[in-house]
Amino acid sequence: MRAITCENTISRRSSDLQRDPTPQPRAGVRAVAAIVLLMSAGWGCADAAASGARATEPAASIRIVATDGVYEAPHRVAAGLRHIVFENHGTHQHEAMLVKLPEGMTPEAYFAAVRGGSTFPEGALDYSGAGLTAPGESVEIWLRVDPGNYMVVCWNGKHATARLAHRLTVVADGTPDDPAPKEDVVLRLADYHFELDRAIEKGLRVIRVETPGPSMHEVDVFRMRGDASIADLERWYEEEDHARPHTRPTPADGMGGMSDSHDIHRVGWMRRNFAPGRYVFTCHLPLPRAGKDGPKLSHADAGMIKEVIVAP
Questions:
Q1: 60: left (phi > 0), else alpha (psi -120 to 50), else beta?
Q2: Res. 20 pLDDT band, cuts 50 70 90
Q3: In whole angstroms, what is the distance from residue 29 CA to residue 3 CA?
Q4: Which CATH superfamily does the domain covering 11-310 fall into?
Q5: Which strands form 193-196's sheet, in the order they lie side by side?
């Protein structure tokens, strides 16, 4: 989820990024929903452990649990393709995005740079993650991580006053990649629309997520309630972004998704159960503004929003 700016939050701007994993200037505005919670030891201890015995078996799945205050997650994982299980045990919608920090940058420094007006702190890279997920829901994703220092953050609403930046070190210890699942459907995040290569059938399904570009994109999957419309979802989303009280009943539940990555060549997978019903796929990364006084528009405004029907 990529939020528009709101008062008293750390804010971060984004614009379309091309097929270059180097950060480029961003023109839209995203509300940062992360406050640094220093947790356990620093980076060095985990790096030192990498010099020990080399792993020969695939790593166990990485479990990340979001509450309304912290993440419960490991502080050290092996580099490579990793299977992540994200669970929301909180009372609000949450996500779990991985941000790789450059050498020497702490989470505190990252957010200090954002508060100081940096649209994207130099050297920091988005590494995808689990998209917006409703309370009580979970989603599985597979993504590739490289050695380095990371933090796991939630960009939703005004969470900067309450939570969380979980520190994570990725080490090259020889652990084999987790096996990628066999996809049931391929989803392409194009400029500016979603392309599904076939219908999503009910049941536990794997979606392979590709980004042909040239821009960065994300996908959040919502299961619609009752006869709620896309307009209802967009109204709710804007209120959620700005941490404003919701004026109407919640029209949909976040079912997870995959966050954006600076390296759009990378493929990800998500797995979850799809009950029969109406779903909406959205990308809310901001579009570049037409001047400082131009309207704040997202990729969804440019057409990157799609209703999907899962048949009984």
A1: beta
A2: very low
A3: 7
A4: Cupredoxins -  blue copper proteins (2.60.40.420)
A5: 71-72, 62-66, 80-88, 138-145, 268-274, 203-213, 185-190, 193-196
pTM of the model: 0.83
DSSP 8-class letter at 45: H
Q: E-strand spans in 38-173?
A: 62-66, 71-72, 76-78, 80-88, 94-101, 125-133, 138-145, 148-153, 166-171
CA 282: distance to chain centroid? 12
Cα torsion 303, 188, 180, 265: sign: negative
Contact 32, 154 (CB under 8 A): no
141-173 burial by CB neighbour count: b if 16+ within 10 A, else e? bbbbbeebbbbbbbbbbbbbebbbbbbbbbbeb
Q: Whats the size of the chain, residue-wise? A: 312
pLDDT tens track for 32-61: 333 333 333 345 444 444 444 455 566 789
Site of tokens 């995040």: 189
The partner residues of 52 in beta bridges, in order of sequence, read none
Residues 219/282, Cβ–Cβ less than 8 Å: yes
Q: Which two tokens stand for residue 26?
A: 């961003």
Q: Are strands 148-153 and 94-101 parallel, antiparallel or unpaired?
A: antiparallel
Tokens of 102: 């450059």
CA-CA-CA-CA dihedral for 309, 195, 62, 137, to nearest 10: -20
By C-alpha distance, which of 10, 5, 6 is closest to 116? 10
Peptide bond before 181: cis, by omega within 30 degrees of 0?
no
Tokens of 230: 């896309």
Residue 147 has pLDDT above 90, yes or no: yes
Whether residue 253 is predicted with pLDDT greater than 80 in this model: the reply is yes
Residues 6+ apart with CB under 8 A from 231: none
Q: Domain segments of the chain: what residues?
A: 11-310
Residue 167, pLDDT above cutoff 90: yes
Q: For residue 121, what pLDDT is reported?
A: 83
